[in-house]
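The pair is set out directly below:
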Amino acid sequence: MTIKRIALVVTLVASSALGVRGSGDDFRAHLSDDLLGHVAQHTSTRTRVIVHGNDAALATLTTRHNLQILKRLAGGAVVAANSDEIDELSKDPAFAHLSGDPFIKVGMSVSNQATAADQVRAGVAGGLFGIGAIPGVNGQGIGVAVIDSGISSHAALTNKVVANVSLITGDPSVADAFGHGTHVAGIIGGNGAPAQTVTGLFTGGVAPGVQLVNVRVLGADGTGRTSDVIAGIQWAIANRTQYNIRVINLSLGHPVMEPAATDPLCEAVADAVQAGIVVVAAAGNDGVAADGTMILGGITSPGNSLLAITVGSLNTQGTVRRDDDTVATYSSRGPTRYDGAVKPDVAAPGNKIVSLEASGSYLPGAYSYLHRAGNGTNAYMQLSGTSMAAPMVSGGVALLLQGTPGMIPAQVKMALQAGATYMPDAGLIGAGAGSVNFMASQDGEQPARSAAGRPDRRPPEFTDRRDFLG
C-alpha cells in the first residue's frame, strides 16, 4: 500500500501541557489545552471548567473564588470562569488540574457473521457425551449502558430497555431526538424478528439477550457536554448492581486536549473499569483530511484511555470473508496524542450498517437517504462510523461475559485482542490487534490465518459521502 502523504495534524508529545506553568516554586495546576487558550486570550468571557476536589475544596469555589457552580459531579464540579479567574484558580493547591468542558459529538446480517457472533450464539455441540461442548449465548442477563442520545421506542427493542435516565441539564426526556442512540442500541441487542416483515438487511443485534440501559447525555443535535457524559458514567457505576451493568458503550468523543491521566472523561472511564465495568469506546472519525490525506494521531477522548477498549471501523466490502476487509478511511488512527499509546485496540464492522431508526428523529428527517425500510416504530436506517463499530464490540463483550461471568475488564480486553485477526496493511495504529472474532475470543484460540498469505488490501475509498458518520 502506497501512501503519498501522511499528515500529522497533532503534536503527540512535544506540546504537552503537563509542564509547570509560571516561574520559580509557585504552584500551578495543570490546564488542558482549551483552558490554556482561554487564559491566553485575556478575555472576560466565561467558559466552563471541570474541577476535581473533596467537599471542602469545592466549597471554596463559591466562597474564596466567587465562582458560579453550573453542575455538580461526584468528586467534582463544573464552574464558569473567565481568563483571570482560571488563572487565579490554577494557583490554588486544592486543585491539581483543571479541564475544559468541551462539546462531545457522536462519531447487520453481514456484520453478525463477519464477527462470528452468530457462531457464539449457536454454541458448539461437542464430541462424544458432549465433551468439549460450548453452550450458545446471547448476552442474557448482561446489562449494557448505552450512554448516547437516548433510546426511542422500537419494535425491535420491546421489553429490552430496563432503565431510562437523562443526565442533560434541563432536559429530562429520555427519547432519542437525534436518532443515534437507538441505532447503536439495535446493533448491540436488537431483536431481528420485527424486521422480517420489512427488510432482510437487519437480522438482529450482536447480543439480543442483553438488558439495555438508556443513559441520555446528547441532545437533539447529537452533541452534549463532557460533564454530562461524565455524569452518565457515574450514574452507570452507581446503578451497576441494580441493572447488572457489565458494559458501557461510548460511541462519542471529543478531541484530545491533555494526557489521559488528567482528562476528566478518561478518569471517569478509569473509575468504571475499577468498578468492574468494561468500557467500549469509539476511536473517532478523524482518519482522513478533507482532501483525502490520511491522518495519524486522530484518536478522540475517551478512546485515548488505556483502560477503554477502543474500536476502529472496518469496511467489510459487504462480504463475510475477512481477507477483503479494510480499515475505513475515516476511522481514527493512533498513536494517541500526548501519551503516544497504541490505539485502537481492535476493529469491527462499522461501514454502512443497517440498524434501528428512531421515529421522528433528526437524522432520518434531515437525511432521508439514510432510511432503508419500514416506518414508524419498525423502521430501519443505515449509518457508518466508529460509532457503529463500538456497539458491535459491546455486544460481543456481552456474549463473552454471559459465557464467563467472572471475567474482569482486563481479561475481556485480552480475550478480544487474542482472538482478533491481525491486519498487516492497517498495522497496530490502524486496527490494533485486528478484526474481532468473538468465537476465537471465546475459545481462547488464535484465529486461522489465510494460507494465501498477505491479501491485497488497498486503501478503501469512502465513495458514498452522503453516509452519515456516527
The longest helix spans residues 386-403. Residues 60 and 66 are 8 Å apart (CA to CA). The chain is about 25% helix and 20% strand.
